[in-house]
Amino acid sequence: MRIGIDARIIAYRRGGITNYIRHLLPALTALDPDTEYRVLRHRRDRTRGEAGPNVRRVTVWTPCHHRWEKWALGIEIAPLRLDLLHSPDFIPPAFGAWHFVITVHDLNFLYYPHFLTAESRRYYNDQIGWAVAHADHILAVSEATRADLIRLLGVSPEKVTTVYEGVSPAFCPLPSDETQKTLHRYGLTPGYLLFVGTLEPRKNLPGLLTAYRILLDRGETREPLVVVGGKGWLYEEIYKRVATLYLENHVRFIHDVPDEDLPAFYNGAALLAMPSFYEGFGLPALEAQACGTPVVISDRGSLPEVAGAAAVIVNPDSPEDIAAGIARVLGDPSLQAALRSAGPTWAARFTWEQTARGVLAVYRNVTAAKV
């Protein structure tokens, strides 16, 4: 087979979809050496070439999220004679390959359209119905996302396969001196509260900040809140909330943490707080668990499914409940120990090799089903 992977989004932003592509691709090509993989990279992408003798980089000009993307990308890839094109960023081209598989990470734009910019709303809302109808098969990253596709868009259950994301082996408990050496470069000492994720409305950072203010006022913590992640969209409210709550001396924003430093951030945290209104998967929760860090998550979307019983669950609509969940972990050493023990065992169930096996099975079923 000759399979294309649309990796153009890597040139535009870091985040969940970029992470998915970067980890899935080497796992796929190692597992499936007899297939030719063509990785579509935008001409602005300056990252190094792909690894593996069965992988070739293909430079394309069509930008992500352009209104003529469906046709322009189809024209560009038609000469590649692809048996299948996999679009991890939801929207496939209208033509250019024999078969199309898409990954749907979440349907946040249908649940919470006000959490997106008008441009992003138009791009996804206007095309998601067409995309799921046009695709030969759909990969969902959680059962929650699969259920959303069936319920909200009327997709046939047989057309959607859940294949979980994986956790890199780099996320694991680290020796304390190694953790402290990394944190020292950022001016941090262990024991802080941690948030990891793109700064955007659905992550509920204003709610977390309000909960953190409650904890400070009650004397239930004096540790800083460290926010790790790039600025997404409509993030201005986050900084306004910091000022309104007089948290300027208590909250640290660190926007550009290299992937190799992130395990130390998890290892140095007293806990990870992830009170999102909606997640299609929620990889930071699993990464933290793999490092043995206690996790406080919301009761929404995929998070209870992905993080399992090895987490404390809170109501994201209630800053009081978020504060109570965090205080419960901070004030209970036996609970901390139980979560630190259970987390790595739970997270070990999610590997990128297993993800690649599931994705590859879908590729083979799709190409075998139709001529």
Q: Judging by the overall fold, what is the CATH architecture of the largest domain?
A: 3-Layer(aba) Sandwich
- Order of SSEs: EHEEHEEHHEHEHEHEHEHEHEHEHHH
Tell me what portion of residues adopts beta-strand conformation: 15-25%
Average pLDDT score: 93
Please indicate the count of domains: 2
CATH superfamily of the largest domain: Glycogen Phosphorylase B
Q: Describe the strand arrangement of the main beta sheet, using strand numbers.
A: 3-2-1-4-5-6-7
Shape: globular
Number of separate strands: 13
> Segments where pLDDT lies below 50 for 5+ residues?
none
Count the DSSP helices. Answer: 14
**Kindly, what is the distance between the CA atoms of the first and last residues, rounded to a whole number of angstroms?**
13 Å
Radius of gyration: 21 Å
In CATH, the topology of the largest domain is named Rossmann fold
Helix content: 40-55%
The CATH first-level class of the largest domain comes to Alpha Beta
Structural class: alpha/beta
Q: Main sheet, how many strands, which sense, barrel?
A: 7 strands, parallel
